[in-house]
Specification:
By secondary structure, the protein is mainly α. It has helices at 2-25, 53-56, 70-94, 131-134, 144-173, 183-189, 191-194, 197-200, 210-213; strands at residues 68-69, 141-142, 181-182, 207-208. 48% of the residues lie in helices and 4% in strands.
Length: 220
Amino acid sequence: MKKRLITTALLAALSITTIGAAAAQNPAAGTQATKPDGERHRGHGMRGHGGDRVDALARFDIDKDGRISRAEAQAAQQAMQARRDAHRAERTARGDAPRAEPPAAARGERPQRGPGARSHKGDGFDLVANFDAIDTNRDGYLTRSELRAWHIAKAAERRAEGERRFDAKFRETDLNNDGKLSRVEVAEKMPRLAGRFDWLDDNRDGFLSREELRPARPQR
């Protein structure tokens, strides 16, 4: 019964949030249906308002006790899936064509630019699958500090894996092991980059270095 009440409350809260966002973005539309918040993101819509994935999870704390129980996490997952299914069924009923995957830039992802460009799979939280790993004190609840620590740790793991893949691909392409990639090496091992060789060659020395191939990262 408790689980059913949590699911019902979450669905109601999500519906109100969606309607409010639609009215704010287009007052003339009133309560006209719009694309629900978070649907475009991976996992269970964990990327939230303001860009802070961790603090966005506060909306899953249905009983407002400052933490997320396993039942609340499961209810959130079920509600998000139900909402996705409902919108998919609505599009099918209207005869809409399947939605094409948007370009990486439109999804807020960095386009592949060089060897070992990292995958963005797994960027989001899956609170149900990872509940026990996130719940470090084993009290059966997820707190803000536990979620933030998990997010930071997983981000570090992804960066390390990206660097490993980048290094492996660079060494594979560097046929003469001189620490830089010539136009011939790029054409042979990474033909998709051949047409952008001059663009990537910032110092115009006729070679691509590791730094020239690494995607630009924002300063923190």
